[in-house]
Amino acid sequence: MNQQYESIPIITDFNDIDNADYVTDPIQELSMSKNILVKKLDKIFCDRTNRYLVFSPSSNGQMKLLFKCEEIKDMCACCHSNSNEVYIAIRHISSPKNTNDNDTPPFVEVKQPYIFNCCKMPEIFVSFTSNNQLIGKIILDSKCCDRRFSIIDDTQNKKYTIKLSHECKCKCKCEKESIFNIYKTENLDFPIGSISYNTKALGKDENYQITFPDDASPNDKINLISFSLLIYYLYFEGDNQSGT
Q1: Of these four, 125, 135, 159, 193, which has the most CB atoms within 10 Å of its CB?
Q2: What do you get for the CA distance between the two ends of the chain, in Å?
Q3: What is the three-state SS of 100-132?
Q4: Is residue 193 predicted with pLDDT exceeding 90?
Q5: For residues 160 and 149, is the Cβ–Cβ distance under 8 A?
């Protein structure tokens, strides 16, 4: 019998990096995490890189800092966003000493290669950097105007489908909570997890939360984190460029 997941209330007042605990093994921590919180950092002046901190909340409310992520897009003004090269470095933060960019090599890399054919939909690859092991892929799996994305797991199976819980037909950023539901690919009637934004302007200094499906492995959770970092780019950036 299918049962909808239990939604976890969004925490918006969590502390920043200075008050967080650290973990030595992020995979072990992810195996125990039911949800994670992501904080978007303020941009450094004239820097085009988006930066995020990924926290795992403990039972007593204390935050554990897992990752710092840097998102770099090689934007070409003459091409649709689907064609552009995208790179995200996900760095494991094991202590306060390695919180700066490039202090440690990336733990995970997320890559969308440049696509010469602007009409071709992108495939985004997620892999461990230590051995180039593929963790999964993110692919567009839309039907007509119903925009959705599939998460391909490390065995090349289509594990999850993600789509916005309500599509805004006017393409505005509605002043309400934005929820991207996570489904088992074979059943799109019952969400089993979510990516929830508590924001009035998606893509603008937002904090958000991922509630993981019960069956998600640590690798699945890394794929879902990777997807969440790309939501604004995948769902809305093309609409902005097209002027709608």
Answers
A1: 193
A2: 42
A3: CCCCCCCCEEEEECCCCCCCCCCEEEEEECCCC
A4: yes
A5: no
- 211 beta partners: 35, 194
pLDDT at 161 over 80: yes
- CATH fold of the domain at 17-242: Tubby Protein; Chain A (3.20.90)
User: Would the pLDDT of 42 be above 80?
Assistant: no
Token pair, residue 151, equals 């998460």
Please tell me the pTM assigned to this model.
0.83
Residue owning tokens 């994670």: 36
Whether the pLDDT of residue 224 is over 90: the answer is yes
Mean pLDDT along residues 13-25: 73
Which whole number is the average pLDDT over 145-165? 90
The whole-angstrom separation of Cα 145 and Cα 168 is 11
> What Å distances lie between residue 113 and 86, 106, 126, CA to CA?
7, 18, 12
Which amino acid, residue 113? P
Separation in Å, CA 174 to CA 31, 168, 170, 198: 34, 7, 9, 12
